[in-house]
Each structure stands twice: as structure tokens, then as C-alpha cells.
Amino acid sequence: MTAIPDLRTATTASPDLLRSVFRRHAAGVAVITARGAGPVGFTATSLTSVSAEPPVISFGIGLGASSWPAVSEAEHIGVHILGEHQQDLAATFAKSGADRFGEPTRWYDGPEGVPVLDGVLAWLVCRVIARVPAGDHRLVLAEAVVGDHAGSGRPLVYHQGRFSSLRD
User: Fold this and answer.
1) How far apart are CA 18 and CA 36, in angstroms?
2) What is the CA angle 76-50-134, rounded to 5?
């Protein structure tokens, strides 16, 4: 028997409702990087595979994000899938004002000059193909051009406002 939702507890859509609903949605954790005047990056839980042919991904970025100016002009971006051992790295890239590329972050200049993080489960360098207005964000679409999936371990997830691990 299917449970019927209790419509008496439903509320009108608002930013708070959206945040509350998505706290219940477990999401993989990625770091997006780009090159501006220097390396920039941010933690993203909005990463999505869009198409296999051609290989296209998407992610959202707020217009007020410190990385937005570089991402808004970058021809290429980096996508890094974090492992459960990288909670500190995810927190660093999520924190406003942090020195994201300082010690202990390990990274190098990758293809197309994109900053590539070391020790991640997988990474891609992608060519930006579109930036679509979406409220106070932009949805960035990018086509993968090179990458590596050789990292080992389990993925880091974000749920209920905190980083966590998958359980069997």
C-alpha cells in the first residue's frame, strides 16, 4: 500500500523549503577548478552527467561565488570527484576566504592550464560550451576533453548539511 503525502504540512515554495528538501538528498562531492588571475575552485554537489555522446557534464555556480568571475570567462574547467578521505579538502574549497590552493592542498597545472587536484578518485578537464542563466546561479555545461578515473577508494557524499561516507 502506498502512503499518501500529508498535504497539511506542505508549504509554499521558498529558498528555505528548497534548502530543506535538498538536505534530504544525498549528493556526490566534487571540486570544480579554473584558472583566472590564479587558480580558483569551489566545492560542488550539483555535478551531473548530462550526455555520453558527446561527454557533457553540468554544475551550478552562484553569481556571488568568489570563483564565478574566473568560471564566467574560462574556456576550460576541472572537475574532481572526491573520496571519503577528502572531507578536509571539500571543507577547504567550500569555505569562503580560504587559501584553497595553499598547503596542504596538492595540485598541479593540468591540461589547458587547468588546476588539477592530486589524490582524487577521478578528474576531468572540460571545455565550457554554455553558461545558462538559472536564477541567482548559472548552469555551466562543459564537454570532457581529457581525464583520469584511476583513483581508489569510496566517494565522499553530502547529506543533511555534512560530509559523509557511503555504507554497505
Assistant:
1) 31
2) 75
Digit-coded pLDDT (tens) for 28-39: 999 999 999 999
Nearest CA among 130, 151, 159 for reference residue 142: 130
Could you tell me the strand order of the sheet in which 162-165 lies? 27-28, 156-159, 162-165
pTM for the whole structure: 0.91
Helix and strand numbers, DSSP H then E, in the chain: 3, 12
Tell me how far apart the alpha carbons of residues 82 and 13 are, in angstroms, rounded to a whole number: 32
Please tell me what DSSP assigns to residue 83: B
Per the CB < 8 A criterion, the answer to whether 88 and 132 are in contact is: no
Distance CA 144, CA 166 (A): 26
- pLDDT beneath 70: ranges in the chain: 1
Tell me the three cell numbers of residue 116.
588539477
